[in-house]
Amino acid sequence: MNELTTAKMPDMWSNVEKANRGDRQALAALRSDLSGPNARLLLDSIGDLASQVENALIKASFAQTGVAEVVRAKLQAMRLEMGYDLASQSERLLIERVVQTWLHLQVAEMHQHQQAAPSVAQQDYSDNRVERLQKRHLAAVKMLATFRKLGAPSLQVNIERSQINVG
Fold this sequence. Notes:
By secondary structure, this protein is mainly α. The chain is 75% helix and 6% strand.
């Protein structure tokens, strides 16, 4: 992000806020911003719904700012461990999904264990919720693994009469 792009962000954000209040001129300016050279800035910040969902879940689940920051750092570390920086756009979406399903699962399990003397119905609901989230998380992990397996370039080398497959 260059200085011109960063300097333009407050104006673009102002257009978003004004358009939310029904200002037609701001809406026209916002549409212009979205088709202009700074569109990527808007799309990567305000338009990143996955980040907005993640932030909302963290904010709702962790009252202490320090804990929330540690959780954000953990999620970022998970992304890096899964190769986010070197991944294709499609693979990045899958990595994001793995991280988000992991977060949802951890928050649900945390809430489940924080319940003081839940009723049988509450415990059943909580157990079913955690089970559904486990399935979603495992499906996301499997999808990422499948994508990587299918998308990984393979190399076939023939040396004399021997064939060697790498990758």
